[in-house]
Amino acid sequence: MDRSESGPYQRSGHYLPYTSAVPNLTEPITRARILIVDDQAPNIRLLERLLTSAGYHRLYSTTAPEQVAALVGQVSPDLILLDLHMPGLDGFGVMQQLQGRLNDERYLPILVVTADLSVEVRQRALGAGAKDFLNKPFDAVEALLRIRNLLTTRFLYLQLDKHNRGLEATVQERTRKLEIARLEILERLALAAEFRDDNTGEHTRRVGRLAGAVAREMGLSGDTALTIERAAPLHDVGKIGIRDAILLKPGPLSPAEFDEMKRHTVIGADILSGSKGMLLRTAEDIALTHHERWDGTGYPSGLAGGDIPLAGRITHVADVFDAMTHPHGETAHDRRDEAIDYIRGESGLALDPDVVAAFASVARRDRMF
To answer: Model pTM?
Structure first.
């Protein structure tokens, strides 16, 4: 509102809508938005004349300190000129109301304008969030210099924050691209291992799709379910380190050979280890634990119950079902019901009962699996 309107707000110059653009220090610092808070209108007019003469035109003011928090939210000032001693809500109360904003902004300077600059008042004001002081009656040149110094610091903070956000976004994007590239390489390794005993190479993809569907059926978040769906295809990547004589042996494995086959879980976890990304950390858990059993008799570590990572428990069920319905890479639809019954029978033994229940719902609803 302009001066002809009633109420506590006065504004000099033309109103400019708030913009999130950070002023560049090569541009006039007079573009700053300055809020003046004083219960005495003559004091406000004095500061407005001083600032206008120095080229500042984005000025906002109020004589009602209880309205400052709302006004700060509306105009997003770069500097607040605040009187300390006001009836009702004083300057200390205003700063207390602005604490959340001051913390969010990192550096929103408050220049306290007061005739009382005792040591106690200065210490209390600094503790409340003030950045500098201007003693009444003030020298015009000193006032403008203090204002300019605070605004310069403000804009440097904003530029640094903008630069840091840009760097963070760049790092996140590069990390994402590196993670995708690494995942693609590992997926190709998984397919290479899978092709050795499944010439279609589809087992890993099917296990991933089913694991994702079960995760969603269990009510896991979309991001978590997608992570499991993308990580589960890597469950057998460790087979790349198992000898063909064992991996492709047509008959049953001897105890020694089976012990060597078990090592594909550890090999896979080693291949996938060391990543800071959630996707590959999940894949590492799956590779290591997808042969652990709910009753603690699985391998490689004999984990039981909830000690087995959920992603590993889900992938275990998906892996068993696909192995039974696609022996040697071939489709065996006639074994679908048998596989479902088998998995239900293993609930509470080899398999997590909650995962089995979710799997049964998915299998009953969707026959594509």
So the answer is: 0.56
